[in-house]
Amino acid sequence: MDEPEVNDELIKDSREGELKNLLYLKDLNKDEIIQLLDQSDHFLKSNQSHEFGDFLKNQSIASLFFEPSTRTSASFQVATKRLGAETIVIDEKTSSATKGESVLDTIKNLEAMGVKGFIIRTGDKNLFASLIDNIGPNTSLISAGEASISHPTQGLLDLLTIRQQKKGSFDNLKVVIMGDISHSRVARSLTEGLNILNTGNITLISPEEFKPNLKNFPNADFEKDPNKGLSDADVIVTLRVQKERIESSENNLSLDQYSKIYQLSQDKLELCKSDAIVMHPGPMNRGVEISNEVADGRQSVILKQVENGVAVRMAVLTKILKQ
Ligand code: CP
Question: How sure is the predictor about 244, in pLDDT bands with cuts at 50, 70 and 90?
């Protein structure tokens, strides 16, 4: 399967001075990312919900997920509620999409009801490009995951988690991403963000079968051997094998074979620095890419990532939709 390219024209057009849409982290500059992380930290520290409970008062935000989700979908809904807005969930299986209505027509109908924010997850690498020039001038698109290309709010919550745990600059950090890199929008967005924050060393570890097109991972080193790649890591992000994106003809790797070499087990974790943190975007396939012991161990910050996801999505919704 060809790895999808980011459409550079789309990146340019998706910015209109202010942050109107959020499709790719590479659209943002360092100051904008730091501002979003600071705002997320503020939301996490503040239990004064009256401070922000009316940021998006009376707004309706549409949630359109064309691929399954637990964390992203739920955390956008929690974030929306905490900001005083409501979520309109459009379910592909019960909406008029089943009668042939296009996504653009769905958006136009919701725009007519006053909806300005659209949170969209899609496996279609052409969907955002087809929408961006046709939505209303006051309408914003927020990507909740686009094919194998982009997952910007996941990238932000990963950056926030690293910044909280490693306190200080990214310059001296070694961040390892291990697993099915070639199908991973999480790896793409995190690498975009890590580059913007000048991370010292980004290392990708995978078997040849999951080696990505390195053009999509600027400044990242590639290593097939975990025993070499994990050495001295400060942060290790493990990734699920995305069976749903693998064509049967493409890959003969058995999961047993894969997990023997690439599962993050306690003995592999010991190759990293002693204070390394373990991350995973979820959903985890325990016993495949990560052992139970490591997933639930003292170095795991996996549930902290989930907690941060709500705060990051609150920061993104506020930045884009607060008037
Ligand atoms: N990390 C992530 O995107 O999880 P979901 O697919 O459950 O939203």
Answer: confident
Pairwise CA distance, residues 199 & 69, whole Å: 29
| Residue position matching structure tokens 């390394």 | 276
Q: Candidates 71, 161, 237: which one to mutate for ligand 1, based on the most atoms within 8 Å of Cβ?
A: 71
Cβ partners under 8 Å of residue 158, min gap 6: 186, 190, 193, 237, 279, 281, 305
Pocket of ligand 1 (CB under 6 A): 69-73, 145, 154, 281-283
Give the closest residue (by CA) to ligand 1 atom 1: 281
**What is the rounded CA–CA span in Å between residue 223 and residue 53?**
46
Ligand 1 center from residue 144 Cα (angstroms): 9
Query: What tens digit of pLDDT does each residue of 202-220 get?
Result: 999 999 999 999 999 999 9
The pair of structure tokens assigned to 120 is 């969209």
Question: Of all residues in the chain, what percent carry a pLDDT higher than 70?
Answer: 92
How many of the other CB atoms lie within 10 Å of CB of 222?
A: 14
Mutation to probe ligand 1, out of 66, 120, 153, 154 (largest number of atoms < 8 A from CB): 154
**Which alpha helices (DSSP H) does 92-222 contain, by range?**
103-112, 127-132, 152-166, 185-196
pLDDT per position as a tens digit, 159-189: 999 999 999 789 999 999 999 999 999 999 9
Q: What radius of gyration do the chain's Cα atoms show?
A: 19
Cβ 215 vs Cβ 253: under 8 Å: no
Under DSSP, is residue 51 helix (H, G, I), strand (E, B) or coil? helix
CA-to-CA dists, residue 92 to 103, 135, 143, 217, angstroms: 10, 20, 17, 32
Provide the whole-model pTM. 0.94
Cis before 68 (ω within 30):
no
Rounded to an integer, what distance in angstroms lies between the CA atom of residue 323 and that of residue 321?
Answer: 6
